[in-house]
Amino acid sequence: MGGKEVQEICQISDAGRNLLKRAMEKLNLSARAYDRILKVSRTIADLAQSEEIKVEHLAEAIHYRSLDRENWASQG
Q: Which of 20, 25, 36, 42 has its CA 20 to 30 A from that of 52?
């Protein structure tokens, strides 16, 4: 899924956008990570049978991303 497709399929609310922006700044994440978080949050929303990506879906995806970064850093 390309960047344009991600933006079409992974629509988020203003509250979700603010949460993701804060996480991007705090965790110093790249644009690539932004797209990955959106994709994971869409999957989480799908598993919850939710048509929209809710803030809690984004929060869970951000949490997974932060865990991934912690594991990667501890291996180096």
A: 25
